[in-house]
Amino acid sequence: MGHRVTVFRPYPLTPGQKIRIEGGPRSGDWEVVEVGDRTMRLRCPVSGREVEWDRFACFVEERADAEWPRRER
């Protein structure tokens, strides 16, 4: 018997990409300036302000009938 599982994966952002964050304190439109292993730098297209945050953008997918908890392979 499987379970409904929500899967999060880091999204592969690239410099120059235009993104929209919906919800939370970082919501709004941003341009990706730089992406490192642990942090990313974003620029507001309106004010030009740049911020550096820990990488947090994730792709979300829901799977029906998935194994949970997942056994290590």
Proportion of residues in helical segments: under 10%
The helix/strand class is: mainly beta
The whole-angstrom Rg is 16 Å
H-E order: EEEEEE
Number of helices: 0
List unreliable stretches of 5+ residues: none
Task: Please report the total strand number as a whole number.
Answer: 6
User: Kindly state the mean pLDDT as a whole number?
Assistant: 88
What is the distance, rounded to the nearest whole angstrom, between the alpha carbons of the first and last residues? 19 Å
> If strands are numbered along the chain, what order do they take across the biggest sheet?
2-3-4-5
Query: What percent strand?
Result: over 45%
For the biggest sheet, the summary is:
4 strands, antiparallel
Assembly context of the chains: single chain
How is this structure best summarized?
The protein is an all-beta fold and 73 residues long. It has strands at residues 3-10, 18-21, 28-35, 39-43, 50-54, 58-66.
Features:
mainly beta; 4-stranded antiparallel sheet; two-stranded antiparallel sheet; 6 strands
Account of the 3D structure:
With 73 residues, the protein is mostly beta strands. Helices cover 0% and strands 53% of the residues. The chain is built from no helices and 6 strands.
Task: Outline the secondary-structure elements.
Elements: E1 3-10, E2 18-21, E3 28-35, E4 39-43, E5 50-54, E6 58-66
Antiparallel strand pairs: 1-6, 2-3, 3-4, 4-5
